[in-house]
Amino acid sequence: MSTSQLPASSSNAVYAELRSRFANGDYGPGQRLMEVALAADLGVSRTPVREAIGRLLAEGLVVPTARGVAVAALNEVDAAAIFVLRADLEGLAAQLAAERQAAGAVAPAVFDQLDKATDAVEVAVVAGDARAAARANLHLHRAIGATAGNAFLEDALHRVWDRIAVSTVSNLSDPVWAASITEQHRAIVSAIRAGDSGAARQAAVAHIEAAYRVLLHKSAGTSTDA
Questions:
Q1: Pairing state between β 32-33 and 62-64
Q2: What is the pLDDT, as a whole number, of residue 87?
Q3: 112 CB contacts (<8 Å, ≥6 apart)?
Q4: pTM
Q5: Which among 134, 140, 142, 171 is positioned nearest to 158, based on CA atoms?
Q6: pLDDT of residue 221
């Protein structure tokens, strides 16, 4: 969304744009977000920015500082908690998607989209572009979440993805991890396509658990062979 498209009085539009930036990993952990600077960047008044920041504070995506707010960083305890939740949610999403496929409720075009999304992650990884890989990765996971056909589950997943966007970019800057995710993604999509709900759930959970191990290694300042 270009800044010129944002209605000057719409806090919803500002909020949506900022959420999009969080999801894309455009902001780093601890990065300060200043109301005046954001208003200028988005081409809006300070009022909708202030209202949007209030919503981000309530959701835990930013934390208050002496001047303005800063992007919330996951501490070790929070990271452990959110990745447990993420593994369960993404496992369920893959399971439900496979169940829908087994019931004939998933159109062939959906798998074309999943394959293209998987390929897009691989292309970005090969190019060594961690941010592009993170955006493509999020698109793939969202597509899987949508295939599950459960709006409440999808909403919960979006909230989790927003909180971990920063760590996703960090993980995908690790060449060993980045090289391994395409195979993991294809295993998830393959199980969904086969209508194997158990295998789909297992592949999705294993993928998220592996991502968490990579995050732990990076947080500890060590290399990983995950």
A1: unpaired
A2: 97
A3: none
A4: 0.82
A5: 142
A6: 61
223 pLDDT exceeds 60? no
The better pLDDT of the pair 30, 54 is held by 54
Contact 140, 117 (CB under 8 A): yes
The tokens describing 77, both together, are 């305890």
The CA distance from 98 to 216, in Å, is 30
Region 88-98 average pLDDT: 98
What number is the average pLDDT over the span 125-145? 92
Half-sphere exposure of 192 (CA within 13 A, CB side): 34
- Pull the structure tokens for residue 174: 């690790």
119's tokens: 């390929």
